Amino acid sequence: MGGLGALDDSFSDVDLRHFDPNQPYPIDEDGNRPEIEPMIKATRRQASEGNPEAQRRLSAMLYLGLGVVKNVTEAYLWLERWGGEGE
User: Fold this and answer.
1) What is the DSSP string of 46-84?
2) Are the CB atoms for 46 and 63 separated by under 8 Å?
């Protein structure tokens, strides 16, 4: 992996069609996003289990702040895991 700058080019073909960047997904009183929470949980579980596409998708979600709190550091860690297993 080539550092944080490489993240911008790493997500061009990641399937993020479930997210509308213009739609602020409502957050309930517990801090969850009910509309997309099941997909986020499934992606995190699959990524943790070693699924390379889920690792890459989770990295994109974290980097772009789609459905989750934006976290570039965690995004980079997941992208590194994907790079080690997906290549």
Assistant:
1) HHHTT-HHHHHHHHHHHHHTSSS---HHHHHHHHHHHHH
2) no
Q: What pLDDT, in 10s, does the model give residues 17-47? A: 555 555 556 666 776 666 777 888 889 999 9
Longest dimension (CA), the chain: 41
- pTM tops 0.85, yes or no: no
Residue located via tokens 């944080």: 4
Please provide the size of the chain in residues. Answer: 87
| Domain boundaries of the chain, sorted by first residue | 32-87
d(CA 38, CA 36): 6
